[in-house]
């Protein structure tokens, strides 16, 4: 069960829109294979944890390497992925960080073939202010087709 709230009525519209804009840029960078720029949207020690990973990915260098690897695999397979984050909830934590929860859909499009829904996930992020903008301190992803595992990143 998630620790993130399901309601965000106390969050200002301005903050909510800022979070949505952050994810719009963040996901475009990911889908365009902009590995270093995407990794820079995480804190220097940011973590990414998902059930298909043996261990959480830690730090910008490892995050960028992970994206480059995935982009090369998709290129070799002749497939394009697009990420969509929606149904976002936002709450301000007592430490000032933002607890964000959303549905994340990944669409896969083989070149010359029909697009399909590749993955259905729940994404839980902790966002912090750093360098004048929002950054991901931690990301925990669950997939609807896989069992939920205990968090390892802390």
UniProtKB/TrEMBL annotation:
Domain SnoaL-like: 16-139
Superkingdom of origin: Bacteria
Annotated protein name in UniProt: Hydroxylacyl-CoA dehydrogenase
Organism of origin: Streptomyces corchorusii (Streptomyces chibaensis)
